[in-house]
Amino acid sequence: MKYTTLPNTDINVSKICLGTMTWGNQNTQEEGFAQMDYALDKGVNFFDTAELYPVPARKETYAETERIIGNWFAKTGNRDKVVLGSKIAGTGDYTAHIRTNGFSKEALNNAVNDSLKRLQTDYIDLYQLHWPERKTNTFGVRDYKYNTDDQWEDNFNEILYNLDEIIKTGKIRQIGISNEKAWGTMRYMEASKQHDLPRMCTIQNAYSLINRVFEGDLAEVAHRENIGLLAYSPLVFGVLSGKYIKGTAEKNARLNMFSHFSRYSSENATQAAKRYLKIAEDHNMSLAQMSLAFINERPFVTSNIIGATNLKQLEENIESINVSLSDEIIEAINTVHADIPNPAP
Question: What is the pLDDT of residues 83-110, one digit of tens each?
């Protein structure tokens, strides 16, 4: 395994991070335990979860993933071997069953305390804001359009101040953002500088061969502000494993179960995936490992969040850390990207 640090901290994390959002829905607790055992044995010390998980978010399964992780900590005593990230849910229809007061002081305190109980731990290493509170372009929407119905009021300073108070209690160590845009990221960074408040050390956004939107403004922000990308959906729910193209996907594969993720199986996304598959096959590697290796090697990526529904997938994904891509492969990848840019934003 390869390791790095969360930017501006002394927290060492594996370059591969274990994603957990299927546990409690597609995966049982027993399967989640097996994945954590295997990942830790392979040197993966960074686990990422959220109160929202499993996904799709439903009232009936709310926070089940955190409970599974907490039960594993209680069973194994491995809490001190893991750098643990979790998140407070943002606002939106899909979180109405959780709370409706966004990132207010009350919401932050309640969310942290509830997560700690479920996780059966005294602290969370990296606590992240899952979504911006303001209305901005999200899944499947490439371009920002001003929303006249947005009632959001500027509260960057307030959020950082309230997070600072929680940090001082020892309940969380570091903070990050997720699904954020360049403007919001810079506002957090400037607020922390101007008011001597904690800084966001990571940003967890989607990043893959068919969604390289991060490489626009956010890649420069990450570089110049030293905020590390935690790349999620690197295989876009298995599209970049090649299983949907080859027709080998099982019935419980995410895109077979959840049709609302159709942006990942659009005609352009499928055509791009087919071309990436040919590049991988021409160089005697799996599409999954080529796709993950590409992300592992990006200079602005702190950790690559992989997910799996079985141990065979997990093994292949973790082994991507040992794959290096030649200049020839990178050039071929960039040719496809130029022809079919970001078909699954």
Answer: 999 999 988 777 889 998 999 999 999 9
- Tell me, what amino acid is at 44? V
Please report, as a single letter, which amino acid is at residue 162.
Answer: N
User: Dihedral, CA atoms, 88, 306, 236, 141, nearest 10 degrees?
Assistant: 30
Annotation marks residue 161 as catalytic: no
How far is Cα 40 from Cα 16, in angstroms, rounded to an integer? 11
Q: What's the chain look like in SS3?
A: CCEEECCCCCCEEECEEEECCCECCCECHHHHHHHHHHHHHCCCCEEECCCCCCCCCCHHHCCHHHHHHHHHHHHHCCHHHCEEEEEECCCCHHHCCCCCCCCCHHHHHHHHHHHHHHHCCCCEEEEEECCCCCCCCCCCCCCCCCCCCCCCCCCHHHHHHHHHHHHHHCCEEEEEEECCCHHHHHHHHHHHHHCCCCCEEEEEEECECCECHHHCHHHHHHHHHCCEEEEECCCHHHHHHCHHHHCCCCCCCHHHHCHHHHHHHCHHHHHHHHHHHHHHHHCCCCHHHHHHHHHHCCCCEEEEEECCCCHHHHHHHHHHHHCCCCHHHHHHHHHHHHHCCCCCC
Residue labelled with tokens 């570091």: 174
Amino acid letter at 210? I
pLDDT (tens digit per residue) in 279-299: 999 999 999 999 999 999 999
The end-to-end CA distance of the chain, in Å, is 30
Q: How sure is the predictor about 30, in pLDDT bands with cuts at 50, 70 and 90?
A: very high
CA within 13 Å, CB half, 24: 26
Residues 270, 238 contacting (CB under 8 angstroms): no
d(CA 187, CA 192): 9
Distance CA 93, CA 100 (A): 10
Q: Which of 38, 53, 62, 276 is catalytic?
A: 53
Of the candidates 198, 200, 170, the one whose C-alpha atom is nearest the C-alpha of residue 185 is 200
Closest CA to 55 of 30, 20, 85, 86: 20
